[in-house]
Amino acid sequence: MPTCLETTGPHDRFMLRAARLALRGRGLTAPNPCVGAVLAKDGEIKAEGWHKACGGPHAEVECLADARQKGVEPAACTLYVTLEPCNHQGKTPPCTKAILDAGVRRVVIGCADPNTHVAGGGAEVLRAAGVEVILGVQEALCQDLIDEFRIWQTTERPYSILKLAGTLDGKIAARGGRPQAVSGPESQADVHKLRAQVQAVIVGGNTFYGDNPQLTCRLAEDGTPLDSKAGFCQPMAVVVTSTLPKAYSTFNLLRQRPEQVLFWTSEYSAKTPLAEELRERGTLIWGLPERSGGRQGGGEGLNFAEAFARLRRDFGCYRTLCEGGGQLALSLARQELVDEFVLYLAPRVLGDAEGKSLFAGESVQSMDDTLNFRLAVADSCGDDLKLTYKPRR
C-alpha cells in the first residue's frame, strides 16, 4: 500500500505491512473493521495475520496462530496491529487475553478503537498488565482503514465508494459518449476486485443506456476467476434514471438478471405502467424524493440519503460502489455520500472541452465552491495511477 504517509521510522515498515494485510479482509468482515497484524523480531517479520471474516478470529489471534505454526515464540517479538486490540467478549474472546496469554511484552498500535459501545480500552488493559504499548504509528493510514467501520457505527447507511477513470485533462469519455475504455487492462481488472468487495454497484442512466453494462464481478478480490469461488453472490445493480426502460428490452441487466436490478427514479416515474411492468419481472423500483436547494445549473435532483439507508436496512448492504457518470458522481459528492473516491488516472489527453468530465452538472463561479478531497493512497495500476481520496469534511 504505497502512500503519501509512508515514513522511515523504526515501526513504520511493520505497520505498513499490517495495513496491507488488513485490506485482504476488506469486504468480508462487515460489520466489523478490517484489521492486520504482524509479529516482528530483529528487523524481520516472523508471523502475520488479518481478520478474514465476521465471526472469525481477529487479526491478532490469526497472527499468534501463524507464529505457533512456524515455531515462533511470540514473547520474544513485538506485535504490530492496525487497530487497538479488543477487550470485550463478542463473537470471539478478547484479543487482549490472547496477547497476554502468549506472553507478548510490546504492542505497537496504529489507531485507537472508536467503538463507544464496548467497555474498556484494550491499550489500558495491556499497560496495566505490564505490556509496553506504543499508540499512533501510521495513525492516519490506520484511521482510513476503519473509515467504513466508523460510518457503520455513526450512520444507518453503507460505506460509499465512488470509482471513476479519467484522462489527464479530466475526461471520462469523448463528446459522443460511446463506450470506450479510458484506463488500461490492469485498472479494468482492479475494478472487478472492487466489485468483489461490495454488495451494490450504482450507475447513472446515461451509463445504463449508453454502455449497456453487466455490472457483475468477473474476478475475485484475490485476482482469481470467480468460477473457482463457491457461494459468491454478485452485487446488486442499481440504476439511477428518470426514464425507465421497457421491461422486456434487450439491456444486459434486464435480460440476464432482472431480479437483481434496482432502479432509483422519481416518485412520479415509480408509479407509471412501465414501473409496474418491471416489477412484474422481479425488478425493484424505488421512487426517491426531489432534493431542494440544488446549485445553479445543476437542478435539484434526487435525494439519495434514504435510498442508501434502505439498501443497508433491507438488504444488509454495507458497502456500495458507484461507477458514475459525472452528474451522478457530483450529486453524491454534494450530498456527502462519497466516503472514498478511487480515480484511475490514465496517461492520456483528450483535449476536447466538450468531452464528458469526471464531475459535471453545475455552473460554479468561484473556487470557494469546490468539493475538497485529500489524497489517502497513491499507487500504480499498469500504466495508470490509482489515486484514492477521502473527503475533507
Furnish the topology, listing elements before pairings.
Layout lengths: L11 H12 L12 E6 L2 E7 L8 H12 L7 E6 L11 H7 L4 E6 L10 H7 L3 E4 L3 H7 L1 H8 L4 E8 L4 E3 L11 H11 L4 E5 H7 L24 E5 L11 H5 L4 E6 L6 H8 L3 E5 L16 H11 L3 E4 L3 H9 L5 E6 L10 E2 L15 E9 L2 E8 L2
Parallel strand pairs: 3-4, 4-5, 6-12, 6-13, 8-9, 8-12, 9-10, 10-11
Antiparallel strand pairs: 1-2, 1-3, 7-14, 13-16, 15-16
List key phrases describing it.
393 residues; alpha/beta; nine-stranded mixed β-sheet; five-stranded mixed β-sheet; 12 helices; 26% helix; elongated; disordered N terminus
Write up what this structure looks like.
- It is a single chain.
- The chain is of the alpha/beta class.
- It is 26% helix and 23% strand.
- It has twelve helices and 16 strands.
- It has helices spanning 12-23, 59-70, 95-101, 122-128, 139-145, 147-154, 185-195, 205-211, 252-256, 273-280, 305-315, 326-334; strands spanning 36-41, 44-50, 78-83, 106-111, 132-135, 159-166, 171-173, 200-204, 236-240, 261-266, 284-288, 319-322, 340-345, 356-357, 373-381, 384-391.
- It has a nine-stranded mixed β-sheet with strand order 11-10-9-8-12-6-13-16-15, sandwiched between helices. A five-stranded mixed β-sheet has the order 2-1-3-4-5.
- Helix 8 links the parallel strand 8 and strand 9.
- The chain is elongated.
